[in-house]
Amino acid sequence: MIRIVRFIDRFSTFVGQAFAWLIVILTVHVCWEVAARYLLNQPSAWAFDLQMMYYGILFMMAGAYTLAKNGHVRGDILYGFLPPRVQAGLDLTLYIVFFFPGVIALVWAGWYYAGYSIAIREHSSLMADGPPIYPFKAFIPIAGAVLLVQGVAEAMRCLLCLRRGAWPSREEDVEEVDVDKLKEMVHVKDEDIARLDRYVTPGEPRQ
């Protein structure tokens, strides 16, 4: 079972990291549009719609990746104080009652929603001759399916915790900088930083 969980985690990570490059495309597009608008006086009529689609695809396709890294927001008031088996039982119940029905509904409805959009070659209605939006809507059931597969892995992770009494480890990935850990890695203390601050803080006498 743990091999299946690891495989699904790696798949979700690959998908999330691949679509993360959209943020680079979005940044370049926004910069180009600003330059075209204010320097060349040639704004693009499709700019706003395309930027929204870039962000929407990135947001949807990163859902499974975030779930694989346990990065979704959790209302952790008492949860963190519970034993691992109780946490796993609670998580498994919530996955069965809320997660799976909701995501299955997303995939089911998204399939018909995207199919209708593709069938009529739907374009944006914000302007005349707007950009096609059916490629964007096609990602709705795809993102839901990837999220559903990752949900299966999370349910398996709960079962493993119920069996072993401890949560299986997750693969490490990029995280926000932990200042305390960084200090330990480079062997720097707060007193050392305070001494160096004297050389960069104006108005303080040097010793």
UniProtKB/TrEMBL annotation:
The chain crosses the membrane at residues 20-40, 52-68, 89-113, 133-153. Belongs to the TRAP transporter small permease family. This is TRAP transporter small permease protein. Keywords: Cell inner membrane, Cell membrane, Membrane, Transmembrane, Transmembrane helix, Transport. GO terms for molecular function: transmembrane transporter activity. It is found in: Cell inner membrane. The complex comprises the extracytoplasmic solute receptor protein and the two transmembrane proteins. InterPro entries: DctQ, TRAP_DctQ. Residues 26-159 form the Tripartite ATP-independent periplasmic transporters DctQ component domain. Part of the tripartite ATP-independent periplasmic (TRAP) transport system. It comes from Achromobacter veterisilvae. One of its GO terms (cellular component) is plasma membrane. It is a multi-pass membrane protein.
